[in-house]
Amino acid sequence: MKIYLDGKYVSKDEAKISVFDHGLLYGDGVFEGIRLYGGRIFRLEQHLDRLFNSAKAIVLPIPLTKQQLVEACCESCRQNKLKDGYIRLVVTRGVGSLGLNPFRCKTPSVIVIADTIELYPEEVYREGLKLITASTQRTSPSAVNPQIKSLNYLNNILAKIEAVNAGTVEAVMLNSQGHVAECTGDNIFVVRRGTLETPPVSAGALVGVTRQAVIELATKRGIDVSQPNLTRYDLETADEVFLTGTAAEIVPVASIDGRIVGSGRPGPLTLQLTEDFRKLTRTDGVLIGAK
Ligand code: PMP
User: Is 32 in the pocket of ligand 1 (CB under 6 A)?
Assistant: First the structure.
């Protein structure tokens, strides 16, 4: 396996960063998780736009251009002979001193790991996922804005621990107003009387690339999509609920806090959009090219 690290393709054993990197010391950095389907990197430009926006929000100058990052992602896939997989693109603040000051870190590090991916088991897509509502609130936009995809995921990890302790794998996170923000690693959608609803970004949702693709696919089918503030009540009384994310794609939800959602089975709109999404991933994306 070859990993891109600051301009070189190195083996897994050689792919190491300093213990003084602020990415490690403080979670100071940004990242993206991106999918490769049939030799095409899905919506790479959108992922790079989000990466650059996250970096801008934390005053982190990415030492490569977007085009150079496109090359690094494509070459990482080619070096590892991947046609389907997952790309983890990381930019850390770089090596500094044992103090918070990010401006003491001279050079950010850029890492690209292209690997295969472990999806949820097939039965989750067939039967639906059981969710809980986490007691850990989503970070307020006035603290660390949830739109920043930073290396500090403790907010989500604390909610994930609650999910795992409750015997499941994903949790709904509410914001300080009690509105639904998203899940620990996925956005959330509600189907109600044939229309789609998803929490607005202002409620603490990440601008998910899969979320955006699903909004486009639904709109193409003439399905009304809105972004109102949602409460637990809205989830509990929905006809269908599903999650979206790069790794998970579209995941039906069977129950929330032990309450059955809709019929308790993947609903018709969830299944339709899953089919549309799978088709889209075969045609939409940057071709990595042959080696
Ligand atoms: N919310 C959070 C907190 C995430 O980490 C992610 C990505 N795993 C998502 C939503 C989904 O975003 P995307 O569709 O871009 O992967």
Answer: no
Residues in contact with 200: Cβ distance below 8 Å, sequence separation at least 6, in sequence order: 227, 228, 229
Residue in 89, 53, 95 with CA at minimum distance from that of residue 68: 89
Question: Among the CATH numbers 3.30.420.40, 3.20.10.10, 3.90.930.12, 3.40.50.300, which is that of 122-281?
Answer: 3.20.10.10
Which pLDDT does position 118 carry in this prediction? Answer: 81
CB 80 within 8 A of CB 115: yes
CA of 98 to the centre of ligand 1 (A): 31
Confidence (pTM): 0.97
Average pLDDT for consecutive 10-residue bins of the chain (291 residues)? 97 98 98 98 98 98 98 98 97 97 97 92 95 98 96 98 97 98 98 98 97 98 98 97 97 98 96 98 90 59
Query: Is 155 touching ligand 1 by the criterion CB < 6 Å?
Result: no
Q: What separation in Å is there between the alpha carbon of 114 and the centre of ligand 1?
A: 18
Residue closest by Cα to atom 12 of ligand 1: 208
Given the candidates 3.40.30.10, 1.10.357.140, 3.30.450.70, 3.30.470.10, the CATH classification of the domain at 2-115 is 3.30.470.10
- Residue 138: CB within 6 Å of ligand 1? no
Contact (CB, 8 A) for 273 and 59: no
